[in-house]
């Protein structure tokens, strides 16, 4: 499961308003009615799920606790996934 903060492109210390702003921007960009890319439905659903969890303070606190207790089995794979996500965010940000 991809880190929900990475999906929205925000830090774990982001405010509720920052999360909402990121969600709205990404939802507009990846909504299947506006984006014909074959993966847009999956991406939009991931964005929606991330926002649903992170916008609820109780669910967000529980999620943060689970992240803090996460044991990384394969650090190379985890680092690669993180860099890949960051690269995609930088590439999509420069396209706007």
TrEMBL record:
Return one Gene Ontology term, BP aspect.
ERAD pathway
- Per UniProt, what is one Pfam family of this protein? DnaJ
Can you give the residue ranges of the J domain? 3-67
Q: Give yes or no: UniProt keyword Transferase.
A: no
Entry keyword set: Chaperone, Stress response
Q: Which GO terms describe its molecular function?
A: misfolded protein binding; protein-folding chaperone binding
Q: Which SMART domains match?
A: DnaJ
Protein name stated in the entry? Heat shock protein DnaJ domain protein
């Amino acid at each position: 499961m991809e880190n929900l903060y990475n999906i929205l492109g925000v830090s774990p210390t982001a405010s509720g308003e920052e999360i909402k702003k990121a969600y709205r921007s990404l939802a507009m960009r990846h909504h299947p009615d506006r984006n014909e890319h074959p993966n847009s439905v999956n991406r939009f659903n991931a964005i929606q799920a991330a926002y649903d969890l992170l916008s609820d303070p109780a669910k967000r606190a529980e999620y943060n606790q689970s992240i803090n207790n996460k044991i990384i089995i394969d650090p190379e794979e985890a680092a690669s996934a993180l860099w890949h996500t960051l690269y995609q965010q930088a590439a999509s940000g420069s396209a706007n």
